[in-house]
Amino acid sequence: MGSNCSDEDKDRTAEQIKGHAAMAAEVGGANLSVIKLLRAGLNSREAAITAVTATEAAFIAYKEMLEWLRSDLVELMSKIEDWPTKKSLPAWLQFFNTKKGNRLKLTCQTQVAQMVMHGQSVQCRSQDAGISSNI
Hints:
Layout: H1 7-27, H2 32-39, H3 45-55, H4 62-69, H5 72-77, H6 89-99, E1 104-117, E2 120-133
Antiparallel strand pairs: 1-2
Helix pairs in contact: 2-3
């Protein structure tokens, strides 16, 4: 039986596995939540490991990580003066305060153009609605 995955999908998966393996070696463990925090910009392995362990976090996707960061538990824990650890507190607070505020926002742009068509001036309006992110 053959696989339904294209060669491109297999290559992408192989690259992801290599990336996770490299990060796991650097972190000293294969916890995907810890790896996600570090890849998202948390500059402290100690903070990532402690925060994930203390809250029993289990996220893989970036969106799940943001939901975890915005949870009541993480909000509460982040108010403790030596959490995740006294040494890692500055790195944690910088990361936490930056990431927890990121939200997708809806934008709408309107463009107005003046055109001349068959000798008559015509005004055209175009709207472009989209989603942008500060993430």
